[in-house]
Amino acid sequence: MALNTQAVGNLLRRRPRFARGNIELWANLVILSWAAAFMLWQGVGFAITVSTVFAIWAILAVSLNLVVGYTGLLSVGHVGFFGIGAYAMAILSSDASYEQLRTEAIPTFGWPFFAALPISVVLAGLVAIVVGVAFNRFRDDIYVLVSFGFAVIAFNLFLNWRPLTRGAFGIHEIARPEIGGWTLNGAFEFLVLALVFLAIVVLISWFIVTSSFGRVLTAIREDEQAIEVFGYQTAHYKLAIWVISAMMAGLAGALFGSWTSFIDPNSFVLLESILLVSIVILGGLATIWGSLLGAMAFVMLEEGMRFLPFLPTEYVGQARQVVLGVLLVLLMLFRPQGLVGKFRL
Amino acid sequence: MSLAQLKVAALSSALRIQEHHSRALATTLTTAVVAYVIWKIVQSPEQALQFAFNGLPVGAVYALLALGFTLVYSTVWFFDLYYGAAAALGAYGVFYLRSQDFLGGRYDVNSHFVNIVFAAVVAGVVAWALHENFHSRLRSRFRPKVLLALGALPTGAVGVYMWLVLANPSSLNALLSPVIGVSVAAVAFWALQRAHRRLSFGRGRSAIVALVPAAAALGAYCGFLVAVTPESKLYLGWGVSCLLAGAVSLALYRGLYVYMRLRAKSPLIMLVASLGILLAITAIITIIFRAAPRPLPEAFGSDVWTIAGANIKGFNVFAIGVALAGFAGLLVLLKRTAFGTAVRAIGDDEEVSKVVGINTTVVVAVVFFIGAMFAALAGILSGHDTAIQPRMGLLLLLKGWIASVIGGIGNLHGAIIGGFALGMIEQFGIWDLAGEWKDVISFVVLIVFLSFWPQGLLPRR
Amino acid sequence: MTTEVDPRVFALETKAISKSFGAVRAVDQLSISIFREWITCIVGPNGSGKSTLINLLSGMLPIDEGIVVIDTVGIRVLKAHETPDHGITRTFQEVRLFDQITVWDNIMVGLTERRLFPSLLERTKPRHEEKAEEILRTVGMWEKHDAMAGDLSYGQRKLLEIGRVMALDVNIYLFDEPFAGLFPRMLERVKAILKEMRAQKRTVIFVSHNMDIVRELSDHIFVLDSGSLLAVGEVDEVLGRSAVIDAYLGH
Question: Most CB atoms within 10 A, among B165, B205, B435, C185?
């Protein structure tokens, strides 16, 4: 009956036998086989949709991991850049002929996808420079707070800057990608495109984290003052990775806008950002593979829940949120580096 | 010095001046904004008064949140994001308890699952309190099984009672009247005894016996009054949901955070874990109550008072009063009682406090309880002022967090000043803008503050 | 030191530098001159400003007043990330390693590119690897090169930190208590490293409380008390002075 805090704490510290060592292997096996089995069971159409969602989340997760896992800045504001990319794509490429009755007129350009894409990415990067300069002096929990702030400010801009974003009505008819007159209208073609972009993002991230630059990032995460003494101007490094990460998120946003062909501010609420951080932590901090795994687990979690008999469809999103919340608590208790991570928070 | 040296020195001091420049620029800009607002106030003082009357009640809510947040932060030194969930729990608790009688029961939600969970949480807290208080004293006198039975009896009774209360919200006043009666009697007896002792200088102890019937009569009268007044149900609901939010917080601390803090290397672990809790509780609230905004039943003080041409609702004055009273109460608790000394000692150094014999687990758990009650109260007040929705928790949490940072992290005086300041800044900030930019204004103010005055208004001493 | 000395014999000079924390003047109008290619020791009772001085010289704290002269160039504002360019590096009193990366990477951080864009393109080169291996063998940590720095024992951490600064090719090394808490065998190793640095014509400044080591290693000694200079000169002579003994044993 006697509840001795120290004793229970010791008990928790000693990991059970099955958990020793092989968690990474099991996490990989379970998530991948689950995903494969699910897609085989549900057929091609389902697999294509789910994989596209996965690709977009995965780009976001990999890019956020560069900031959270490698540089140790727990940013909850990533959805802001995602939204900037999506809105830039929407405004630049949405069809000018779309009837704008009953809603306010916004500027439309009707650019093709591949012209709007670099602009979206660069715009996200430019915003990131401004935000990054302001945020560079913050650390740890205060960083979390101000990054919350960025997400809230970005969301309010999307919602309330009506002459540009048409507020809650959203923007319709965003262009589909077009390669030399061949429009990628089919879901499969788009999936291939998304996967190509995911591959590019993963490659760039891999290139960054295996370079000397990546090593400096991990050192900044561990002790920023100590690494300064070695002659590194940490502010520049943090700013650089922040901008790169934001540009990747902008890319994901542009893809997302084009894929759904309609966006409104509800896709970019603060909650999405928190979910994204959960994905990164769940998959594993400071590993690229972990972020891919986390994104896959996240997408599969939602899809899996659709088939739970006792769960009404409208609660699936909420139930997923509950599961993620509980998972976060358990991870922080037993495995603060995430499933396959290399950095303990 | 050589020419090269002079050059380097001059360059360096130029760099230094540049650093000063940005700060000076920020100060100038802030002063300009403040001057502009003052100019506007002078231009139309009535409008300004109205803004102040709008801002103060909102500020009161933020101040309450910031107080609880600061209390907890300055004790355990991590930001507990559960406070957002506590605010939402408080507001939805009132809604849950009142939904049967309210709007013809259209939004009636009463699920066995929720009742049992909360009854279990409260029973668990009672069991823990009994264990902490009596276990070591009684361990030598009774066999373990007897002890277990002795503990299980009151625990079970409280659990069942809580379940009854939650399952029958339409007779809340009747069910809770004995509790009200007994607690009024106890408080009255304590007060009378104190007064008597002070007046009689310790003589005439037998007179105390005469106080018992007086206190009992008062208690019985109050209990009766509550039982026959249906309007009291709303305010009893306030109390119950505050207690529930506090109990959940206590249970979370004792059941989870204690173990996590033994292992956590950085405050970020605690922050992320509490973020997970916030996420889960928000989602559960959405599942039970739906995402759409809901109204709370009309409280007292809906009449509008007009002072110097500006309007303020009676209820809003009450909210301001609650924030000030909460602040005063917290101050008395921390500065005048042994408990407060223990809290401050733990905030200074938890290990040393343990060594000198403070039961840190209990003290911190109680701090979590109090903090969550503040958050729940803030949630209720804001819910009566506007409407409630599940994501209010996160928004209120962020506002409370901002308020405590603006005021100066870990400083109670700063928390209340920061709360009211944030409420006013939001109101005056939208003078020339539309109301939907409030959130943006508060975060911009936060970032400016942290960049140039990271210590906040009142730095922690 | 009454005669006029050519300033070029000094690697590092401070000219009346001060640093206050609130009302406390941790370093008070301190002027010292460190001889080139010598081992200089800074001693003094606890709270005499030794660590603050090291922090000022490595740019980790801004200097309130005064000037630092490095290689005859006067510097008013010393920034931490510029210190290697001025030829200074340091270790910390409480070891500050990069805990969650490997021992190997801890050394590598000192060897690789400083500039932002070149570092993005740079992969580990053979010359980096050779140098890192050489350093790790010198400090006796080669067997541990794949371990996480956070998993090392205290002594190993101390050695790794010394190895980490050896990776930097600079002229002035500041060691804040490099001998504290080391086993005799490790102690000998650190002593050998410091002597080797002197042999390679580097300037070494260290803080220590161990008088035997101070006597053995130092060419020159500064005694600080309450942030100002109490004594300066040749080791045995200075440590024999009554004022120094008083400062250490209490008045």
Answer: B165
